[in-house]
Amino acid sequence: MFLAVDTGNTQTVMGLYEGETIAARWRISTVASETADEIAVRLKALFDLDGRALSSVTDMAISSVVPPLTEQWRTAASRITKTTPLILDSQVDTGLSIDFAVPSEIGADRIADAVAAIALYGAPVIVVDFGTATNIEVVDKSGAFVGGIIAPGIVTSAEALFSAAARLAKFSVEIPPQVIGKSTKEAVQSGLTFGEIDRIDGLIKRVFEQLGYRATVIATGGLSTRVAQLSQTIDVINDDLTLEGLRLIYQRTLNS
User: Catalytic site residue 109?
Assistant: First the structure.
């Protein structure tokens, strides 16, 4: 079986594939100081909870934006599969055309998102990835990754607000019943959720203007289902987009 691993700054998402189908998904907190041994222990516990054997994993592909963890995941994956895992970076042949000043600066998750978006939805396509940062990735009608936008994620913005405003208590990031908050809690939630989605819609409309045409817009990431439903520009929600990109890229390396 194939395990796709997307290690983000805040959370790590994993998908276990049987062929082209995801048989199991896990989302855990990212621990930047974690060792290869600790990674293997956590993986085994997750598999045990689902009644699965970690030894059934024969292949792995890893996307990581946390440099200290990349080598630890490489080591853990090698021990589990007894093979060398695919570590996605700008040097891997993904088949993605890139029109970007410094390709090595592109995060592995952004590459995986773009590959999957093109395969599933065609080009042009835009991906909005809701994570620690909100990434907007742009693929033009020729199928080339032409750049994007990186902004603070909704949770990152919330944490900055709560840490800077001493009188504001921490609230969960939820969509309030109306935009005009009837309490401090609702007012904060309105600013975070409606403010985030309006920012995204505004940016996407600017992208359309620069491209000169519209594109299909895909939302993914941990908070996508929570706020994307409010959007006027997002067409599809696909929380497995990064994992699917990893699977497609790994399959390409096998066939090349």
Answer: yes
